[in-house]
Design brief:
This protein has 17 helices and 10 strands. By secondary structure, it is an alpha/beta fold. The strands form 2 sheets. Strands 1, 2, 3, 4, 8 and 9 form a 6-stranded parallel sheet that branches. Strand 3, helix 6 and strand 4 form a beta-alpha-beta unit. The protein is globular. It starts with 7 loop residues before the first strand and ends in a 25-residue tail after the last helix.
């Protein structure tokens, strides 16, 4: 084994799904949840259960869905009644057209769903309980962009409700880690976060410190005592960029699909070769660890104990968008041991890597890990009207006082979710996003008109930990 290099790597997996349970099926809606079960969540659990020291962030809005009674049975029916049939039909059609290799790949890939089906049954049908031993960080209640909210009460409730949800579900072991949706941060958030018990957040500082700067390998201490952990864009870009590993020709092409949206082609247009792709994932894992270690050796020596490289990724990238991503992650864990790079859970790393004081009097504008490092993905021209409407709705709830009951607050929190604006800006499932924006806006107006006793049945299990008195507290 190589000597152990300076510093450490923390891989943070931000696990999030907009609330789609009960809100539409194919092509948009709760089928996204079933696909994440099969492609990302259940395969990831195998890696976590084997002891991989990864940091798992679970959003409350995802947990709201995982808590719904009967959810496992609906996933089983999806595999049994939908995926078995669609795989068989596509394989038969490809074979009839003379595409034997493509047909064989569709048949092979059907085993992913069968294994997920068996895995969930083995875990007693309770994915939330399976995640519980690994659930380290929480997030805002409905994944709202906190700097875009209109009132202190709105920010406070998104944060408090998220913490309350996590502690109710996973007990008192929470160590204060809070994932800011889209890494959206401004310094005015610090007092609200600290008051809710938050100890540490991840933030994006590439635009201020520069790509590959040593400063991104050192946690900072905010004026309130909040630990600000820069994500390391240089490390993350090895995976999450236009030229990152998932773009390689041998990997499965997510966008080239059959009639029933199965994907038997690779990025280079050839029939997908699973064995070759897995071999490449192993090579890319070795490359990732080697480059991360080199980065720490180059830029991490200036701090006691070396630097801390935080690689933050959306969990759903691994296994779903990047089909081989879970295999890559598992290989990264193995390669860290073989190459002598210490892989740590972020909470543990923050006990070792003491933060440096943030520069006094620093006035940072709001930042995110989105395009351009700013808020434009969620407030730019394509979605500006929605951003203003959501802020106006928040002010309506505040003005309504005690006439705004639980249903109104839950509809508001649904409207505040970052997902709808992201979909519109990125051109992904735009009709669905607009439908949800409109529906929650109407639901909020109806709830305010009905008063504090309004019915919230249409919201399912969304934001069940919201506080009906949240907007009545003094600001």
């Amino acid at each position: 084994m190589s000597r152990r290099g300076p510093g450490a790597l923390a891989i943070v997996l931000h696990t999030h799904m907009p609330y789609v349970e009960g809100f539409g099926t194919w092509p948009f809606g709760e089928e996204w949840l079933w696909e994440a079960f099969a492609g990302s969540y259940l395969p990831l659990l195998d890696v976590l259960d084997a002891g991989a020291p990864l940091t798992l962030s679970l959003t409350p809005v995802l947990c709201d869905q995982l808590e719904v009674p009967g959810l496992a049975e609906r996933f089983y029916r999806f595999v049994e009644d939908v995926r078995r049939e669609t795989h068989a039909k596509d394989a038969a059609g490809l074979r009839a057209g003379g595409h034997e290799r493509l047909a064989a790949e569709v048949e092979r890939a059907s085993g992913d769903y069968e294994r997920a089906h068996a895995s969930l049954r083995r875990r007693g049908g309770d994915l939330l309980a399976a995640f519980a031993p690994h659930a380290a960080w929480t997030s805002a209640a409905t994944h709202a962009i906190l700097p875009l909210l209109a009132t202190g009460a709105g920010v406070r409730e998104q944060v408090r409700s998220g913490v309350r949800s996590h502690q109710r579900r996973f007990g008192a072991a929470w160590r204060g880690g809070f994932w800011l949706p889209e890494c959206a941060f401004e310094q005015g958030l610090e007092p609200v976060l600290r008051e809710a018990g938050v100890r540490a957040v991840c933030i994006e500082l590439t635009g201020r410190l520069g790509l590959g700067s040593a400063g991104q390998l050192r946690p900072l201490l905010g004026e309130s005592g909040l630990v600000l952990v820069p994500v390391d864009r240089e490390t993350m870009s090895l995976v999450w960029s236009d030229s990152g590993y998932p773009a390689a020709g041998a990997y499965r092409d997510y966008h080239h699909h059959t009639v029933h949206h199965h994907t038997p082609w690779s990025n280079d247009g050839e029939p997908y070769d699973h064995a070759a792709a897995l071999a490449l994932a192993g090579k890319h894992a070795a490359d990732f660890v080697a480059r991360t270690r080199e980065r720490l050796e180059r830029d991490g020596d200036g701090a006691p104990g070396g630097g801390l490289a935080v690689c933050a990724l959306d969990t759903e990238l691994l296994g779903h968008w990047w089909y081989e991503g879970i295999a890559w992650l598992e290989a990264v864990v193995r390669e860290c041991g073989e190459q002598g790079l210490e892989l740590m859970r972020l909470d543990d790393a923050l006990e070792r890597f003491q933060p440096a004081a943030a520069p006094a009097g620093l006035d940072w504008p709001a930042s995110t890990w989105g395009a351009g490092g700013d808020l434009s993905t969620w407030s730019g021209p394509q979605v500006g009207a929605h951003a203003f409407a959501a802020r106006a709705a928040e002010l309506d709830v505040l003005a309504a006082g005690d006439r705004a009951g639980l249903a109104a607050i839950r509809e508001l929190m649904a409207l505040q979710a970052s997902d709808w604006a992201f979909m519109v800006t990125r051109g992904m499932a735009v009709p669905y996003a607009l439908e949800r924006i409109d529906a929650h806006g109407r639901g909020l107006r109806d709830a305010l008109a009905a008063g504090a006793g309004a019915d919230a049945v249409a919201l399912g299990n969304l934001a069940v930990d919201a506080d009906p008195g949240a907007f009545l507290e003094p600001l």
